Amino acid sequence: MNKAELVTAIADKSELTKKDAQAALSSLQKVITKSLSEGDQVQISGFGTFALSYYPARTGRNPQTGAAIEIEGANKAVFKPAKALKDLF
Q1: 55-69: per-residue pLDDT in tens?
Q2: How many CB atoms lie within 10 A of CB 21?
Q3: Rounded CA gap, 78 and 37, in Å?
Q4: Cβ contacts of residue 1 below 8 Å, gap of 6+?
Q5: Among 13, 32, 63, 86, which residue's beta carbon has the most beta carbons within 10 A?
């Protein structure tokens, strides 16, 4: 499912127009992104938690030359599904 299909599904399941569903989805994305950028996590009961996870620096290899390179550590956004969502599958 892509973003356009998600907007259509939201509009169909609610009493929102596609334009309002698009605005709601965009607002949700902005709120989650802003919270993560501030170091907070976003927990949606029954769905899951969006959080940042730190991946430490490590040594990798350049696949073309085989030379060792240092890959910097980075924060990455992760999603952990809630038990209710996991139990559906």
Answers
A1: 999 999 999 999 999
A2: 19
A3: 13
A4: 9
A5: 32
What local confidence, expressed as pLDDT, does residue 20 receive? 94
pLDDT value for 42: 95
Task: Look at residues 62, 63, 40, 38 and name the one whose alpha carbon lies nearest to residue 50.
Answer: 40
Chain position carrying tokens 């938690």:
49
Tell me the CB-side half-sphere exposure of residue 5, using CA atoms within 13 A: 2
The whole-angstrom separation of Cα 89 and Cα 82 is: 12
13-32 mean pLDDT: 94
- What are the CA-CA distances from residue 39 to residues 24, 35, 72 (Å)? 23, 6, 19
Strands (E), the chain: 42-44, 48-55, 58-61, 68-71, 74-81
